[in-house]
Write a structure and sequence with these properties.
The complex is a heterodimer of chains A (about 280) and B (about 280). In chain A, helix 3 runs antiparallel to helix 6. Chain A is built from 12 helices and 3 strands; from the N terminus they run αααααααβααββααα. Chain A has a domain of about 110 residues. In chain A, a hairpin with a 2-residue loop joins strand 2 and strand 3. Chain A has about 280 residues and is mainly alpha-helical. Chain A has a 3-stranded antiparallel β-sheet. Chain B has a single domain, classed as TIM Barrel (Alpha-Beta Barrel). In chain B, the strands form 3 sheets. In chain B, strands 1-2-3-4-7-8-9-12 form an 8-stranded parallel beta barrel, surrounded by 5 helices. In chain B, strands 5-6 form a two-stranded antiparallel sheet. Chain B is globular. The chains are: A mainly alpha (about 280), B alpha/beta (about 280).
Chain lengths: ~280, ~280
């Protein structure tokens, strides 16, 4: 877990301040081809290679925003502060949002967009493999619908309010990764890099997003502001009555939506299977 | 002697690792494969596509679970969440045995996600065996530990790697997942005769065998699982089969993965040794 040097070698100084050559020689046997230092270095390099690859795979959008070098520096700093505490690499990026908020220097002027992107890419991971509960059936609520009804959202539904439309960037990157029309890998990578750099210069525009899945594939669905607030209130455990009061009595809503529009939202959410079956008492 | 208490008294033949580039081929073409090995950690989740896919595979194939992060050799106790999720998966797959590595890889709850070599000491063997027993008791399924490839050796070691393996499995009363490629890789990195290792393993404890390819660098060999199996490794496999009999065999191919057919054909090369080994073992 000891960081590598800029030239991707093992540091000459051990964690305890001792010379690494002597430190390694105390524990590791040399052989006829490699010194103790060199043998330990194999593991040191593999650690960083493995974990950086994992973050690159999970956060291609963040990489696009920051550029390769800056992204790698950010990842190294993050992993030093937040080494993996899970048996699975799936959870490697789970503290990245909080860490980035506390350490804005690593994203520089793109901090706000970078935080948004990390939130979206982590939501993407969670929506992919979170639990799904049996969906709510119409007959379950037919006799009980009312202000006291407490609807639960599926555990895999993630709701985000973002300052930048980073969903478009992620979709573009996913599209480029699937695009195999070019014959040369190098050409494809160059073209991809140019396209990504262009769209990574996003302008701020607040969006509300649901990250969810249908038939085991993850989708991003843009939401209206009130629609988002209503969903968040239900996700927080408010009853239908409380959620509606919370959203529509807000001063922010100068013009409350039409009843038909709200009914349409509920129809869409139910159609997408976002509501869980009611818990039996 | 393939069926033993360390592999749940099963008679599995040649399997391959279940890897994502082959999912579509497997589900649409339904090739005849004796069994698949899955990486447990990839499926220790709550839902979504991976588990859906696994359920589809389980409808048609036998699956054995192989773990990469139990770290029997790490000093700390096994993580409860890890164990709970692993047991849930064992119930789902009905794997007859579970395998993981004879190595360490975590300290104070921090994970390296690597398979780090052990210091071969009696103290380490004792603690490691205790952990294997605890995990096996919790999972209620036989466990087989796999020898890892290594690039470093410790001054404090009191025995050879194979002596350490034997010490652990005897104390834990567990099985062995004998990786003959790992034996070869370590033998080249540490200058020992790989055949001595194969000859020294208690054959009656071998639950399963791994074969794989590796990458040769100027000063060492790296266990990369990105090539076909080389002849010296087949020779070790041949000897292991002669000693242990017809044993469940798995080809690992994890990087630069070729087509399903290529991987499966490479795995099926083991058949010629299995047939010969059964005769030799019977004599």
């Amino acid at each position: 877990m000891h960081p590598l040097t800029r030239s991707e070698k093992m540091s000459g100084v051990a964690p305890n301040g001792e010379r690494m050559k002597e430190y390694a020689a105390r524990f590791i046997k040399p052989n006829d081809r490699l010194t103790s230092f060199e043998r330990l270095e194999i593991y040191n390099k593999q650690y960083w290679f493995r974990l950086l690859s994992g973050l690159m795979e999970d956060f291609p959008g963040l990489q696009a925003i920051l550029g390769n070098r800056r992204f790698e520096e950010l990842c190294k700093a993050y992993l030093q502060d937040c080494p993996s505490r899970s048996f699975t690499l799936r959870n490697l990026g789970r503290d990245l949002e909080n860490w980035l908020r506390k350490n804005p220097k690593w994203a520089g002027s793109r901090q706000a967009m970078a935080v948004d992107m990390v939130r979206l890419e982590w939501a993407d991971i969670e929506a992919f493999d979170e639990k799904a509960e049996p969906p709510l059936k119409a007959e379950e609520v037919a006799g009980t619908a009312g202000a006291n009804l407490r609807l639960r959202l599926q555990p895999y539904v993630r709701l985000l309010d973002l300052r930048y439309p980073v969903d478009s960037l992620v979709l573009k990157i996913k599209g480029l990764n699937e695009d195999t029309e070019f014959s040369s890998n190098a050409f494809r990578e160059r073209r991809k890099r140019k396209q990504v750099q262009a769209i990574a210069k996003l302008k701020p525009a607040q969006i509300f997003l649901a990250v969810h899945r249908v038939d085991y594939s993850v989708y991003f669905r843009r939401l209206e502001a009130t629609e988002y607030r209503l969903l968040v209130a239900m996700q927080q455990g408010k009853t239908l009555g409380q959620a509606i009061n919370h959203c529509f009595s807000s001063k922010k809503n100068a013009a409350p939506p039409e009843l038909a529009q709200v009914a349409g939202w509920f129809q869409n959410w139910a159609g997408l299977g976002w509501f869980c079956a009611l818990k039996r008492k | 002697m393939p069926a033993n208490r360390f592999n749940g008294f099963t008679n599995y033949g040649i399997g391959i690792g279940l890897r994502s580039p082959h999912y579509h081929h497997i589900l649409t073409r339904k090739p005849v494969v004796d069994w698949f090995e899955i990486i447990s950690e990839n499926f220790m989740i709550d839902g979504g596509r991976p588990l859906h896919l696994l359920d589809q595979i389980l409808e048609q194939y036998r699956v054995v679970q192989h773990g990469v992060s139990m770290y029997f050799g790490s000093v700390e106790k096994a993580n409860r969440e890890h164990l709970r999720r692993l047991k849930d998966l064992v119930k789902r797959t009905k794997t007859p045995w579970v395998t993981d590595h004879l190595c360490w890889g975590s300290v104070d709850g921090r994970y390296t996600h690597d398979l780090l070599p052990m210091p071969y000491t009696f103290e380490a063997a004792k603690k490691t065996a205790q952990k294997v027993r605890e995990v096996s008791d919790f999972l209620e399924v036989p466990i087989a530990v796999e020898n890892v490839s290594s690039y470093a050796e410790f001054h404090v070691s009191e025995m050879t790697e194979w002596e350490f393996l034997n010490e652990v499995v005897e104390r834990a009363d567990c099985g062995i997942l004998l990786d003959v490629n790992n034996i070869y890789v370590s033998s080249q990195n540490h200058n020992f005769n790989p055949m001595t290792y194969v000859e020294s393993v208690p054959a009656e404890r071998v639950a399963q065998i791994h074969i794989a390819g590796h990458s040769k660098y100027e000063k060492y060999i790296l266990d990369t699982h990105d090539h076909a199996v080389i002849d010296p490794v087949w020779k070790l496999y041949d000897r292991a089969i002669q000693r242990a009999g017809h044993t469940a065999t798995l080809l690992e191919w994890d990087d630069n993965i070729p087509t399903f057919k290529e991987v499966h054909n490479e795995a099926l090369k083991a058949n010629r040794f299995l047939a010969k080994g059964v005769l030799a073992h019977a004599v």
